[in-house]
Design brief:
Structural class: mainly alpha
Order of helices and strands: HH
Oligomer: single chain
Number of helices: 2
Strand content: under 5%
Shape: elongated
Number of strands: 0
Length: about 100
C-alpha cells in the first residue's frame, strides 16, 4: 500500500513540475507579446526624507501609482497564463476521455 502512495506522490510531483513549466512558458510567451512592458521601479522616489521639497509627496504618489499599475499588469499576465493552462488541460483531459470511450 505504501508503494502505491509513494508512486502517486511521485506522479503528482512530476505533474506539478510539468504544470509549473507550462505556466512559465505561457507567461514568457505572453511577456514576449508585450512590446512596452516596463519594469517596476525598485528605487523609491528621490527626496522623501524630512525637509524635502513640497513636490516629494506628489512624486511619491506618482511612483506608487506607477508601480501599482505595473503590478496589476503583471498580475493580469499571470492570470491569463493560468487560465490558458487550465483551458489547455481541460481540452487535453476531455480529448483523452473521448478517446478512451472509443
Amino acid at each position: 500500500m505504501s508503494i502505491e502512495i509513494e508512486m502517486e506522490s511521485a506522479q503528482e510531483r512530476v505533474q506539478s513540475r510539468e504544470r509549473r513549466q507550462r505556466l512559465h512558458e505561457l507567461l514568457l510567451a505572453l511577456i514576449a507579446q508585450q512590446g512596452d512592458l516596463e519594469l517596476m521601479d525598485g528605487e523609491g522616489p528621490v527626496g522623501i526624507t524630512a525637509g524635502s521639497s513640497t513636490e516629494a509627496p506628489a512624486d511619491a504618489a506618482r511612483w506608487l501609482d506607477r508601480n501599482r499599475r505595473l503590478l496589476q499588469r503583471y498580475q493580469a499576465l499571470v492570470r491569463t497564463a493560468v487560465t490558458l493552462d487550465t483551458l489547455l488541460d481541460a481540452e487535453t483531459t476531455a480529448g483523452s476521455k473521448m478517446n478512451d470511450g472509443f
